TrEMBL record:
It comes from the Eukaryota. This is Exportin-4. InterPro entries: ARM-like (IPR011989), ARM-type_fold (IPR016024), XPO1_C_dom (IPR014877), XPO4/7-like (IPR044189). It holds the Pfam family CRM1_C. Its main location: cytoplasm. The gene is xpo4. The keyword Cytoplasm applies.
């Protein structure tokens, strides 16, 4: 084992040497203006290797390993000249590539991903920020100087992410303040100067102005993507200053779908990357600003019809983003790394008087926007369909008590969506819908109200799930989800379940099949006590269900 370990490390060293020699040949060719003789694919391959090598072997945290190669530790470990040299070389490689290959999106994107690798780990970032090239790159990007301003939007976003990550390396307070003044202050100042112009409403559609707005929005997404637990306090405060202004831009660019989508995407990224670290007060601020965004979106799209079926996927990208935003906000309910706002020490203040905005308020308002717009044609788009059903399943699981409170038409739309997903969609979507049924049935059992629309709807779903398990072919992976849904529905509608079984048995003309089914159903509900929401009873039922499906599976399948 030890011989194999040293052989692997030795092979990696030789491979690194070969790639570095190839990389140097490429660099010298570009300095000699021979770029036309080079292959962008070769450049991609070089960066691909260097990124993965740096992530794995450069400045390894030796405390995490029981044994480590001495040559590796000596060459590229902490406080070694080799580590400082290779970091400087890789940074120079990044800058050279961005200058020479700015028109090659894939190569440029791989290059900035290498830069992210250099700064995402604090030990590497500490060396990077000591390089003069790093500061020059930061100034060049902040001033929108060529050729960096010609990079694609995706590349510029990732480059901003790298620059922000680098800013949290070890620096004295004056140096850090200078860094942020050169990286973030120009972005903020340029944006405020632009939108605060008296004639902004007249010039906002000019191409140069739109490009500046788009570049700022992309930068904000990059800043959000750079969020880590040790920098979330600073980045949240910085981004919150922008979000209100972004809502104002929704009004200005309401007839520009691409810009509206990018504005919503800023909120999506902030919620995705930061909500899990925010305590109650900060979360509330984010909920409030997201609610305002949705209100403006709703107002601007009220009654708007989109008739071009061929362009539906592009036109409804905003709908997909809104569902992602709502799902990200919901994630706070089950992924929460905050510790009473520990990362915001000294920043918290009481929220004051007035009713607080909750995640439920924002999500249910968003559902009021999304549900009426969802059609069977839109659900043919896989990404939209998946996000939609994930969202409504999360809502049913986290806020089942809110479902009966929905307006009548929205409630009907939600129930129709669940039925459509169970009966006409992929097995993945069908499983999501089944997972949504259990908490709805449990909610009915908790309230014990038998004349509500939700109680009536669950009775209908009992027959659908029963038919799925007994009469239809289904993916065996769905048996557990279907079984859990069936059990909770049976607990709620025991008489109706008995009626379904009796009807099924009475329709059997074959005595052998009749007896086989009767025995299987008797075994399935063999308990002497009526089924309840007790966990042990449910587990026993699911175990019996496996035997039931094995015994009668395919016996009565009609499709």
């Amino acid at each position: 084992m030890q011989l194999h370990f040293h052989f692997s490390v030795s092979l990696c060293h030789r491979l690194l040497s070969a790639v570095l020699r190839t990389s140097e040949v490429e660099s010298r060719a570009t300095r000699a203006s021979l770029t036309e003789l080079l292959s962008p694919q070769m450049g991609k391959d070089i960066v691909w290797f260097l990124r993965r090598w740096a992530k794995t072997y450069l400045l390894v945290d030796e405390k995490l390993y029981g044994q480590i190669s001495m040559p590796l530790s000596t060459a590229f470990g902490a406080d070694t000249e080799g580590a400082q040299w290779i970091v400087g070389y890789l940074l120079e490689k990044v800058i050279n590539n961005l200058s020479v290959w700015s028109s090659e999106p894939e190569l440029a994107n791989d290059t900035v991903e290498l830069l992210v690798t250099l700064v995402e780990k604090r030990e590497r970032a500490n060396i990077v920020v000591q390089c003069e090239n790093w500061w020059n790159l930061a100034k060049q990007f902040a001033s929108r100087s060529p050729p960096l301003h010609m990079l694609s939007s995706t590349v510029q976003r990732t480059l901003m992410k790298a620059l922000v990550l680098g800013g949290f390396a070890h620096m004295d307070s004056d140096t850090k303040q200078q860094y942020w003044a050169e990286v973030l202050h120009p972005l903020q100042q340029r944006f405020l100067n632009l939108i605060n112009q008296e004639n902004f409403a007249q010039i906002c559609q000019e191409e140069a102005v739109k490009q500046e707005i788009v570049a700022t929005l992309e930068a904000l997404c990059g800043i959000a993507e750079a969020t880590q637990i040790d920098n979330v306090a600073s980045l949240f405060s910085f981004l919150m200053d922008f979000l209100s202004s972004c809502i104002g831009l929704m009004e200005v660019y309401r007839n520009s779908p691409e810009t509206v989508n990018l504005i919503i995407e800023v909120f999506v990224e902030v919620a995705h990357k930061q909500i899990c670290y925010l305590g109650e007060t900060k979360s509330m601020k984010l909920y409030e600003v997201c609610l305002t965004l949705l209100q403006v979106y709703s107002k601007n799209n009220l009654g708007r019809k989109r008739l071009d079926v061929a362009a539906e996927e592009d036109q409804y990208q905003d709908l997909l983003l809104i569902m992602e935003l709502l799902t990200n906000l919901l994630s706070k309910e089950f992924i929460d790394f905050s510790d009473t706002d520990e990362v915001f020490r000294g920043q918290e203040q009481s929220s004051g008087a007035g009713r607080a905005v909750s995640a439920a308020d924002v999500v249910l308002y968003g559902v009021n926007i999304v549900l009426p717009l969802m059609s069977q044609d839109l659900l043919k788009f896989p990404s939209l369909c998946n996000q939609y059903y994930k969202l409504i399943t999360f809502i049913c699981e986290i806020f089942p008590e809110k479902i009966p409170q929905l307006p009548e038409e929205l409630f009907k739309s939600l129930m129709c969506s669940l039925e459509l997903g169970m009966t006409s969609m992929s097995s993945e979507i069908s499983q999501l819908c089944l997972e949504a049924l259990s908490p709805l049935a449990e909610q009915c059992a908790k309230t014990q109200e038998k004349d509500t629309p939700l109680f009536i709807a669950t009775r209908h779903f009992l027959k659908l799930v029963f038919d799925m398990l007994v009469l239809q072919k289904h993916n065996t992976e769905m048996t557990v989800a279907a079984g859990e849904a069936l059990y909770t529905l049976v607990c709620l509608h025991q008489a109706e379940y008995s009626e379904l079984v009796e009807t099924l048995l009475s329709n059997q003309r074959d005595a052998v099949i009749y007896q086989r089914l009767a025995d299987a159903f008797n075994s399935l509900t063999a308990s002497s006590t009526p089924p309840t929401m007790d966990r042990k009873q449910k587990v026993a039922f699911l175990k019996s269900l496996e035997e039931f499906v094995a015994n009668v599976g395919g016996l009565l399948c009609v499709k």
